[in-house]
Amino acid sequence: MSRAPLSRACAALLRRDLVLAWRQRGDIALPVLYALIVATLFPFALGPDLALLQRIAGGVVLLTVLLAMLLALDGLFRGDLEDGSLEQLVLSPQPLAPMLGMKILAHWLTTALPLIVIAPLLASLLHLPAAAMPALLLALLLATPLVSLLGAVLVALTAGTRRSGMLLALMLLPLCVPVMIFAAGALAAAQQGLPWTAPIAWLGAALALAVVLAPLACAAALRIALDA
Amino acid sequence: MSTWIPLWLHRLGSPPTFYAFAGRLRPWAIGLALLLGIVALYGGLVLAPPDRYQGDDYRIIFIHVPSAWMSLFIYAVMGVASFVALVWRIKLAEVVAMESAPVGAAFTFITLATGSLWGERMWGTWWTWDARLTSELVLLFLYLGVIGLYHAFEDRRQGARAAGFLAIVGVVNVPIVHFSVKWWNTLHQGSTVNLFGQSHIAGDMLWPLLTMMLATKCYYVASLCGRARADLLALEGGKDWVRRIAAGEAR
């Protein structure tokens, strides 16, 4: 059996996932709305004090985006698992890890990218100083793929179980601690007018590592979870 | 190198052999744990002199530090056992990894609870977002995640493999968390007892600490033996050797 080149298979899978997401455009809006609502609830809970909101704005936006991604991650493999196409992907002659990498990329493009686009809006709702905005966007650009990659490994592990939502939070949040620390560190430094490239560089290093390792781990985890 | 050690280890991997071996080992481990624990507590609470700055409050160290060591040690055991289980698919390794998790979580909880009591006396606060405290808390969450994932599967062996994979991911993550939170915020003192090089602790205080460490190790072995035996019986429910044991119990 001759098999198609890997790049063609990757492109086909990416296109398929993006088309599927586009056909259900409403689902793309849901994490965005969720993040918007959570961010607007913070001033109600803490009071509309400008100085306080300015201080916490960066952290609130990071946390809101993380939680919205956590909710969306649950659906990463669900549709494919239910109609059996995930098993076909595992059985296909192409190596599984790059295929899953493409699925993660498609998922990041459809859930995290809209969140990054509205992040400046969320931040200005909470009066984040404009000087910290580049740091926020850069931190989100590096932190959200990291969360997607780490989350995908865990979602793959829970693919064989029925109640996975809360479990995913329990497993993912400890793994996100370093991501959170460095992203928030960059923001805090930017808000105080200090140089903030070091934590961003750490995030970039972690992302480089995760891009290589996470799809492999995800493939191994998926084989374990589907091996019934 | 004689061949009986690998051979013996190979045999020990079979559930009925391990069941009998753990049954014989367990009473000894419990006895040794109790004995060493009592000696260590007597040495730590009665014989050791009060600390110059902390008075008698420091004596909680004899529970706190051995528990903290055990929380990391058991995680390491769990990681190694999970690795063995995933690579060679040894049933016993899965059982050891999954039955270690609750014991390790208990030790982590004890570390956090005693640390918070100690912190209240010394730092004037029950909890602070310090590097070591935070990484210990993350360790507790990792343990809980492993336990939760194990129980989420209907098939126990599949659950053990998935949770074992999570444990290995955690092994990679624990140092990263540790160094990132250290960079973030530090209040806790550095290590006092060093395996290599000079320890900054008086001999009168060191020996009860090390004895307690041995006691907690023995307790872990005893607890693991008991838990693994129960788990093996449940896992191997329909097999002949379990039926023979059940028939023996009934008679």
Write the layout of secondary structure elements.
The complex is a heterodimer of chains A (228) and B (251).
Chain A: H1 6-23, H2 25-46, H3 50-73, H4 78-82, H5 85-91, H6 96-125, H7 133-157, H8 165-191, H9 197-226
Helix pairs in contact in A: 1-6, 2-3, 2-6, 3-6, 3-7, 3-8, 6-7, 6-9, 7-8, 7-9, 8-9
Chain B: H1 4-12, H2 15-47, H3 61-88, H4 91-122, H5 131-152, H6 156-184, H7 203-235, H8 240-250
Helix pairs in contact in B: 2-7, 3-4, 3-6, 3-7, 4-5, 4-6, 4-7, 5-6
Explain what you see.
The complex is a heterodimer of chains A (228) and B (251). Chain A has one domain. Chain A has nine helices and no strands. Chain A has helices spanning 6-23, 25-46, 50-73, 78-82, 85-91, 96-125, 133-157, 165-191, 197-226. The radius of gyration of chain A is 18 Å and the shape is elongated. The mean pLDDT of chain A is 89. With 251 residues, chain B is mainly alpha-helical. In chain B, 78% of the residues lie in helices and 0% in strands. Chain B has helices spanning 4-12, 15-47, 61-88, 91-122, 131-152, 156-184, 203-235, 240-250. Chain B has one domain (27-185, 198-250). The chains are: A mainly alpha (228), B mainly alpha (251). Chains A and B meet through α7, α8 and α9 of A and α5 and α6 of B.
